[in-house]
Amino acid sequence: MSKSKFLLTPVLLWLSLFLIVPMLIVVGISFLQRDALGNIVFSFSLEGYKTFFDPLYLGIYWDTLVLSILTTIICLAVSYPLAYYIANASPRIQTWGLILITVPFWINFLIRTYAWVLLLRTQGVVNNLLIYLGWIDEPLQMLYTKGAVLLGMVYNFIPFMVLPIYVALEQMDKRLLDAASDLGASKWNAFRHITLPQSKSGIMTGSILVYVSTAGMFVVTDILGGAKSAMISNIIQSQFLGARNWPFGAALSVIFVITSLVLVLLFNRAMQARHQRVKEGRA
After folding, report:
1. What are 229-248's pLDDT values in tens digits?
2. What is the pLDDT of residues 94-105, one digit of tens each?
3. Structural domains in the chain?
4. Is the pLDDT of residue 177 over 60?
5. Three-class SS state of 216
């Protein structure tokens, strides 16, 4: 026991120094005020939290939640069949499949995102192709829309969903499927009662990674959404770097973290409840 505690000490120190302490500082700043020049005034205030309930910021926060959840759902719908195929393929196909999934990580994140600008802009590749094929008469406005932001989010974060699900499916005991087949279970029942519950950990891990990454992302929104689309992360960035309203930016950060934790806990509870119902159904 003492040896395990010794091994955990560097990790706990790292988390305390670079995660817990900065978060406590942000929480403290959220209850302070600022002067006319943007300097922090050490006086207790709830003004940052009150400002959050302005309809403008509530709308932006709602759009952030909808976009993050929608991105997570689309990534899951696309990634699960792909991860399932790779996990059940031959070793050679598995190797190439994993290489193709991780190829985007070999390219800088900004370059990958800016590439979509070249594809979606008015004189971009997609519009020119559609006009050449005669499907449209004039260019479509695809860039600087919520759809472009959603597309960029899904593209950038699909690997975060595929890899955890693939690992869960790869580690699954395949003998359970053979036993189910011998007992007369259909492929769908075997998938629903064995494969899907066994991959629950991968689904949860991938969903949390995609949701948190999407909700905290502001680069994709800036590049593909422009001024017409904003997420709460863009507001936090502008409050800290542009408006110099650190208390309000800190308050938004605290609200974002609390909301994300609540949604993650609710998702975890829903997955556990579903798994329990499946076990009771098998019993």
Report:
1. 788 888 998 899 888 899 99
2. 999 999 988 888
3. 47-282 (1.10.3720.10)
4. yes
5. coil
Neighbours of 207 (CB within 10 A): 24
- Specify the DSSP element, H or E, that contains 167: helix 146-170
> Under the phi-then-psi rule, with left for phi > 0, alpha for psi from -120 to 50, and beta for the rest, what region is 35?
beta
Round the CA-based radius of gyration of the chain to a whole number and report it: 23
Q: Residue 227: which pLDDT band, with cuts at 50, 70 and 90?
A: low
Helix, strand or coil for residue 236? helix
Tell me how crowded residue 116 is: count the other CB atoms within 10 A of its CB.
22
- The label of the residue with tokens 């066994």 reads 198
Q: Compute the mean pLDDT over every residue in the chain, rounded to the nearest whole number.
A: 87
Q: Tens digits of per-residue pLDDT, 81-133?
A: 999 999 988 889 999 999 998 888 888 888 889 999 999 998 889 999 999 88
How far apart CA 210 and CA 76 sit, in angstroms, is: 9
Residue 280 has pLDDT above 70, yes or no: no
Let me know: does 113 contact 156? Beta carbons within 8 Å.
yes
Which 3 state secondary structure label does DSSP give 55? helix
- 3-state percent breakdown (helix, strand, coil) of the chain, nearest 5: 80, 0, 20
Q: How many CA atoms lie within 13 A of 217 on its CB side?
A: 28
For residue 11, with 0-12 CB atoms within 10 Å meaning exposed, 13-18 middle and 19 or more buried, which class applies?
exposed
